[in-house]
UniProtKB/TrEMBL annotation:
GO terms of biological process kind: proteolysis
Residue stretches of each TPR repeat: 313-346, 381-414
Keywords in alphabetical order: Signal, TPR repeat
All residue ranges annotated as the Caspase family p20 domain in the record: 30-161
GO MF term (any one): cysteine-type endopeptidase activity
InterPro entries per the UniProt record, alphabetical: Caspase-like_dom_sf, Caspase-related_regulators, Pept_C14_caspase, Pept_C14_p20, TPR-like_helical_dom_sf, TPR_rpt
Region (Disordered): 257-295, 412-431
Protein name, UniProt field: Peptidase C14 caspase catalytic subunit p20
Organism from which the protein derives: Bradyrhizobium cosmicum
Signal peptide positions on this chain: 1-27
């Protein structure tokens, strides 16, 4: 079963004013450099990330007021992003404060976070490291070039269309392995994504800008306050991740007379509100029209390749995936049919047709496909996940729980398998709340995704 995650990854790079004594007494005079990237227009995404563009501009303006030399860029291709990073590295002097802000899509692979250019072509996991830019590598290069303080502000914890194309991935972002004297803030917890949004501004950036402007607090405290503000505003549904190895005191807005503003205790220590909603029945998103599909640039490109070479099974399989992600299930099944006729043992194609058939209600056909996929590849976690959906819709809750458990053993970070197991457990008379809550923390859109399959938390 594919993972339907909408939204977007935004990396924020902000500048800091050093205000410490001792060995760092001259740090305030060091160069302050920032690279601000707002990638909003990804052809693979359904809509432009307006908040990424607007927030990048707002952050760049704030950093300039704080005395940073700012290079603001938008909608960078891989070549343009590489050039922007090279310019950024070349300007770093020994002892400088170097800050990178990225707003766009990010993805984790092999326990690293990668920032994605707008022209990334990602269909399998190896493509992530080929087309993406490793945050770990960026921080390491900043350190190698002599930056005394390294800062990365990342609002990229969005579900994105690339993640839905290959199944063996972990949602959200991975922890950064940063050099000493670094400060890193993600907009959401590790392995979690924020709910899809088409707004013009990001809550995370709004909180960040307010705290950056607050006088008489350290940058680390400002980011802690940012985290606490987001947690409070979202009723703990979004919990930013903060990592600091700073040994130098510095401030965004500078130090003035008066006591520091600590803004209260960490809301993680406060008692959460009692949950009021037990059963949710979100509305599934409508399927796109044929005109919308015809205008999709990815589908159009794959269609051209298929027209040029009718035997191009790879393009046919990819187009089937895109159709399925966009809920154009009939078109998806047609493409998977062609791929499977050419190779009846193609476990991935069989699995994809299985969950597509399950979404359309062809449960017996879906069950046959999943069983064939597992015969071809007995360890395919995605096929256990897909068969779990089939059994859940068939009312075979015990079999569904077993399938989802087998999938989770192979991929513990699958929000789909966790949510499905929670629903199956609930329908079996058990609780299931822990699985459901964990799945929602990883993917706030998971309930809507399952609604598209005809499955809700409500007990029938």
């Amino acid at each position: 079963m594919s993972h339907f995650m909408r939204a977007a990854v935004v990396l924020l790079l902000a500048g800091l004013i050093v205000a410490s004594g001792g060995a760092a007494s001259h740090a305030a005079d060091a160069a302050k450099l920032a690279l601000v990237i707002g990638n909003a227009k990804y052809p693979d995404n359904e809509f432009v990330l307006s908040d990424a563009a607007n927030d990048a501009q707002a952050v760049a303006e704030e950093l300039k007021r704080d005395g940073f030399v700012v290079d603001r860029q938008s909608n960078l291709t891989a070549d343009a992003m590489r050039q922007a990073l090279d310019r950024f590295y070349a300007r770093i002097e020994r002892g400088a404060v170097a800050l990178i802000f990225f707003d766009g899509f990010g993805i984790q692979s092999n326990r690293q976070t990668y920032l994605l250019p707008v022209d990334a072509q990602i269909w399998t996991e190896p493509d992530v490291s080929r087309d993406g830019f490793s945050l770990d590598a960026i921080l390491a290069e900043m350190n190698t070039r002599g930056a005394a303080i390294k800062i990365a502000l990342i609002d990229a914890s969005r579900g994105n269309p690339f993640e839905r194309r290959f199944r063996r991935y972990s949602a959200g972002l991975a922890p950064a392995i940063a050099p000493g004297n670094s400060l890193i803030l993600y907009s959401a917890a590790l392995g979690a994504v924020v709910a899809n949004s088409k707004t013009d501004r990001s809550l995370f950036v709004a909180e960040l800008l307010r705290e950056m402007r607050a006088p008489n607090i350290s940058a680390e405290q400002a980011l802690t306050n940012t985290k606490n503000g987001v947690v409070a505003a979202t009723n703990r549904e979004q919990v930013p991740w903060l990592s600091s190895s700073l040994t130098t005191e510095f401030s965004f807005a500078g130090l003035v007379a008066g006591p520091p503003d600590t803004k209260g205790a960490d809301p993680a220590q406060t008692k959460p509100d009692q949950q009021k909603q037990v059963c949710e029945a979100p509305q599934a998103e409508p399927a796109p029209s044929p005109d919308d599909l015809a205008k999709d640039p990815v589908i159009a490109d794959l269609t051209r390749k298929i027209a040029a070479n009718a035997n191009d099974a790879v393009s046919r399989y990819k187009r089937g995936q895109v159709y399925a992600i966009k809920r154009a299930y009939a078109f998806a099944i047609q493409d998977f049919d062609v791929v499977i006729r050419r190779d009846p043992r193609d476990a991935e194609a069989l699995n994809n047709r299985c969950w597509t058939r399950a979404a359309t209600g062809d449960l017996q056909g879906a069950l046959a496909d999943c069983n064939l996929a597992l015969q071809s590849n007995p360890g395919l976690s995605d096929a256990f996940d897909s068969r779990g959906l089939v059994n859940l819709k068939l009312g075979r809750t015990a079999e569904a729980v077993k399938d989802y458990t087998d999938a989770i053993q192979r991929n513990p970070r699958s929000s789909s398998s966790l949510f499905g197991r929670g629903i199956a457990t609930r329908r079996s008379g058990g609780d299931g709340a822990t699985d459901i809550a964990q799945a929602k923390s990883m993917n706030p859109n998971i309930a809507k995704e399952f609604a598209g399959y005809g499955v809700t938390e409500c007990i029938p």
